């Protein structure tokens, strides 16, 4: 199996059980080994009391992209810790894209960077996720 096919099959297996990302309105746009791109259109229910995209929604999008990237090798992997820096607000109607890429994978520990941008390419947030592989796989190989 090619790395890209393994990543796509891993994503399909995770997506089938990922009710939170689907509930939020996310879509998987691209998958490859150590890479994931997810998108979300900011709707009214995603906005906070300031009328901008809630930071938790932006974090959730970045975290989901991180999760798909770090599980792309069909090795069950979870977050150890994550951090985010917001650089601009997402606006109602914006199409947010979270692009996750692997920075390092050593043993059971990984580091992933996720950039969230809007439809014009404006950077909304930078996220760094630290992962830890656990027992199990997403599908039988």
Task: Give a quick precis of the structure.
The protein is of the alpha+beta class and 141 residues long. The protein has helices spanning 3-17, 19-24, 55-70, and strands spanning 27-32, 35-41, 77-86, 95-106, 109-117, 123-133. Strand 1 (27-32) and strand 2 (35-41) form a beta hairpin.
Order of helical and strand elements: HHEEHEEEE
Quickly give the structural class. Answer: alpha+beta
What is the class in the CATH system? Alpha Beta
**What is the topology, as strand order, of the major beta sheet?**
1-2-4-5-6-3
What's the tally of helices? 3
The backbone outline, from C-alpha atoms, is globular
The biggest sheet, with number of strands, parallel, antiparallel or mixed sense and barrel status, is: 6 strands, antiparallel
CATH homologous superfamily - what is it? Hotdog Thioesterase
Second CATH tier, the architecture = Roll
| Fraction in beta strands | 35-45%
- End-to-end Cα distance: 9 Å
Task: List the domain count as a whole number.
Answer: 1
Return Rg in Å: 15 Å
């Amino acid at each position: 199996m090619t790395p890209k096919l393994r990543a796509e099959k891993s994503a399909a297996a995770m997506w089938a059980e990922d009710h939170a990302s689907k509930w939020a309105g996310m879509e998987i746009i691209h998958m490859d080994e150590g890479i994931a791109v997810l998108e979300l259109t900011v709707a009214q229910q995603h906005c906070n009391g300031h009328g901008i995209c809630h930071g938790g929604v932006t974090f959730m999008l970045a975290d989901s992209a991180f999760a798909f990237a770090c599980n792309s090798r069909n090795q069950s992997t979870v977050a150890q810790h994550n951090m985010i820096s917001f650089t601009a607000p997402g606006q109602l109607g914006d199409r947010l894209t979270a692009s996750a890429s692997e920075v390092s994978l050593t043993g059971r520990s990984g580091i992933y960077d996720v950039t969230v941008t809007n439809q014009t390419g404006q950077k909304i947030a930078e996220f760094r996720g630290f992962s830890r592989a656990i027992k199990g796989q997403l599908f039988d190989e």
